[in-house]
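Aggregate trends can hide what the representation actually does to any particular protein. The sequence in question and its structure tokens are set out directly beneath this paragraph.
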Amino acid sequence: MTADTHLPAAVDLTTAVAAEPDPLLFATVSGAHLYGFPSRDSDVDLRGVHLLPAAALVGLREPQETRSRMWWTDDGVEMDLVTHDLRKFVRLMLRRNGYVLEQLLSPLVAHSTGTHRELVALVPDIVTRHHAHHYRGFAGTQWRLYEKTGELKPLLYAFRVLLTGIHLMRSGEVQAHLPTLLGELAAPSYLPELIAAKAAAEHGAADVDRARVAVDVEALYARLDVAQGESKLPDAPAAHDALHDLLVRVRLAG
């Protein structure tokens, strides 16, 4: 099984890119559309990188390293675009942050440049065994939210991030699409039903046996621990110098 590479119908960044005050180096779709369980009323989460001019980083004014913009399409779809300046983004890449790697590698590409492709090519030299900590922590946050609300969305997020972490530790590949992960890893048999239920309602309750899912989530935590212990991934990223050189070259050219 492979992730769907078709953009949501609402995504057309022609106007949005033109409205950005600085060059947009890439924008991809993240969130539930990337993870393989969007609802009919899901908004579209766009994530990417912009490039500040060098002058913005050497003066007294604080640079706008992160920008966020929301708008509604004519069809009533909520769009959410969040971008980081290139320097901030590559620093996040070096901090065992699986979330930014998922954004960078999303097959749902709304806007791309040569710099985007260069960053993608460096990912194999970024991932480490310590990225398991990111997925372990993210799963914990989502599980606590599920325990508090009983909603299906955070429960699916918890399962998704644990399976993504296990897959990454075993293969070195960042795979964020839950239906694809279900085709490659052993997982609870009821997950396809939960994905189907999520399609009907963004904030519906999870119709599951809480005790059963607690056992299954705990088992995935244990599998993530084992996968991390057995992983052949390195302890530290090897792309620091390459990212530095790319950042300097792109900044000065911009």
The radius of gyration is 19 Å. DSSP finds twelve helices and five strands in the chain.
